[in-house]
Amino acid sequence: RIDGARLWDSLMQLARIGATEKGGVCRLALTELDGQGRDLFVRWAKEAGCSIRIDAIGNIFARRAGRDDSLPPITTGSHIDTQPTGGKFDGNYGVLAGLEVIRSLNDAGLVTQAPLEIAVWTNEEGSRFVPVMMGSGVFTGAFTLEHALAQRDQSGTSVAEALQAIGYAGPALASADVSPVGAYFEAHIEQGPVLEANRQVIGVVEGALGQRWYDLVLQGMEAHAGPTPMELRRDALLAASEIVLEVNRIALDHAPHARGTVGFIDSYPNSRNVIPGRVRMSVDFRAADDAVLSAMDAELKAAVQRSAAARKVEASVEQVVYFPPQPFAPELVAAVRDAAQAQGLGWMDIVSGAGHDAVYLARVCPTAMIFVPCLDGISHNEIEDAEPAHLEAGCNVLLQAMVASAGG
Amino acid sequence: RIDGARLWDSLMQLARIGATEKGGVCRLALTELDGQGRDLFVRWAKEAGCSIRIDAIGNIFARRAGRDDSLPPITTGSHIDTQPTGGKFDGNYGVLAGLEVIRSLNDAGLVTQAPLEIAVWTNEEGSRFVPVMMGSGVFTGAFTLEHALAQRDQSGTSVAEALQAIGYAGPALASADVSPVGAYFEAHIEQGPVLEANRQVIGVVEGALGQRWYDLVLQGMEAHAGPTPMELRRDALLAASEIVLEVNRIALDHAPHARGTVGFIDSYPNSRNVIPGRVRMSVDFRAADDAVLSAMDAELKAAVQRSAAARKVEASVEQVVYFPPQPFAPELVAAVRDAAQAQGLGWMDIVSGAGHDAVYLARVCPTAMIFVPCLDGISHNEIEDAEPAHLEAGCNVLLQAMVASAGG
Ligand SMILES: NC(=O)NCCC(=O)O
Ligand SMILES: NC(=O)NCCC(=O)O
Q1: A229, A230, A380: residue with CB nearest B273
Q2: Which of B327, B6, B201, B284 is nearest to A228 (CA)?
Q3: pTM
Q4: Among positive and negative, which fits the CA dihedral B237, A29, A14, A93?
Q5: For a substitution probing ligand 1, which of A25, A80, A356 has the most ligand atoms within 8 Å of its CB?
Q6: What pLDDT, in 10s, does the model give residues B122-167?
Q7: 20 to 30 Å CA-CA from A104: which of A157, A280, A358, B149?
Q8: What is the DSSP letter of A375?
């Protein structure tokens, strides 16, 4: 049994770093605040007797020795970077639930057969830098370390520079090849309304939607909003607006298991009386079926072509993230289900609409996830909230599933 | 006859202050660069024997005494602030054409009956601060000095603070009541394609389109782009995109003498995998007929209502600029036409799609404008360009019209 009050207390302490006025957290990946959050976790993990390893993309691995340290570790974890308007639980819960599992085993004087590890994956959110799920993506070979290190934020700072600046550029690349993982579990808030609507405490996650992300650039021509006749304009924002609506329509056409969102838009020169000359924007597509995701890709490209031609702008579409729908390992999913059942918790099977580090880990080891409800299904919002009792229940399921995998 | 080479040379010197890589100028109102541009003009005007007065909104008046200094001055001028992606000629031409008129009269040893003034009006562009045409608006009582001084840019700096910072907060409010103007002429590039298409050198400006500008705020709800079902979203950018397209449609419905533009848009939190929670945007409407402008206003409000309801967002619409279509004074328009004709220049009557300080001056004194062509009709763009010969021709028309009004 874990200590729910201690878990809650740790969550609230970590949430102070980057706390926002509206009760949320803004701790973007690899900022100074992210560095402070990492330092706090490392201190706590050392106090819990763990050894610490940092790899070349800044992933943190906190290890608790097992009786047989030659076995691959049973790993849990998540991320502590947040959205600009993020909450206290997204990611942070998975990391601190792992810490609470180790603290509880320490209290009980129990050592598992296989070692246990907590991983804090770098830049899961994908808000400051793409690709999203960067640390776990490098670890599992989804893309290269070099590709990840070279990415830049809107202000031009690279991942490599940001890692150096906060002191989390580790010496070597950890990868699943050189450091195999025995099994991976990740506890997370659901970030959607399904558990709450069904009044269940534990989501037994069967897999996650596939994703395709894009960067679009629409190049028109700046001109004066007054004397320039309507029919001579090359207004990049008109094309962008049509595409925003098309992205939404494409997702609706593939209901119910597809999503389409334009989260980022930047119009230039952004002056009230100037016809917009250039728009940069993102597109985020998700689907439960890879064929649907491919169809959405084709429909997006056709929509961009149509708008570009109609509005006389040049358009470029670059795909910056792709992963197919990812099913989790049936035997580990069953272990999560069994633990929930054994503890008498209301549970249901569920599919994740969000990407998680677990999606990449599932490529290299048996993987499963544990969801708990969040208030009104709201996440990526400062008002994100969760019940202490639900967080405690999810952590107990994690404890039982990890110990079962590691050998009690 | 004015000295076309000297006029061109002054234009090129002023254009160095805030010069951009693409050959344009970025000298936003009341920035340090605007201060440097003002200093250069003041030095030149003093060298040409003018006395200088700065008023409380930062308008600069450079005065050349007349034979009868009790007469109200014959004034010309324009502005030297630019768009973020502005050109070398918009505004600057009108100010430096005025200076060239005075330099030429000095060379010829001619003194007019009435005094002559060059006005450099503060923040005509309306890009950094609204209302647009701010200095002339205060001077003519279109809105109050207090209202103008209190406006803030996107970073929160007020007009009052910015004026202090560059040393152009003059002691007293100049207004047309206390300092009456005998007549006002303004030379400007056309900023549209009409003169070029008709192969004419001088546009005899009969008046300007009316304008209504708005600030819109659409408040939805940030949420996660993955797990949040499409039908539960309150996506502010979807509503904004519909409104962008409606603004365009409304203008097209009132063709050919209506314009509609969304030049500014800001989406929050602007993160790729977050459903946009809030969008702020501008709307710029123009029309030749005030009744049409009112109809467009009503259509905008209806469109915003529809999108807000459909997308479950809250919407606010604030009108931040309004002036009706403004005809110029027939006798001064005729003086411009006569001067063009006398000088054997190809001319045509034209309506201004842009607002100009002359639009406000026309409320307090007889007013007219002189347009010259600009390359491909492009303005509010760094590639804005104009022919030296056309600029010289426009300045000669200005000279003749001013001397005729002031008494030779
Ligand atoms: N869990 C989570 O918020 N991940 C961010 C990546 C995504 O947008 O799915
Ligand atoms: N002339 C000019 O560019 N004025 C700016 C005000 C407007 O947008 O009409």
Answers
A1: A380
A2: B284
A3: 0.94
A4: positive
A5: A356
A6: 999 999 999 999 999 999 999 999 999 999 999 999 999 999 999 9
A7: A358
A8: G
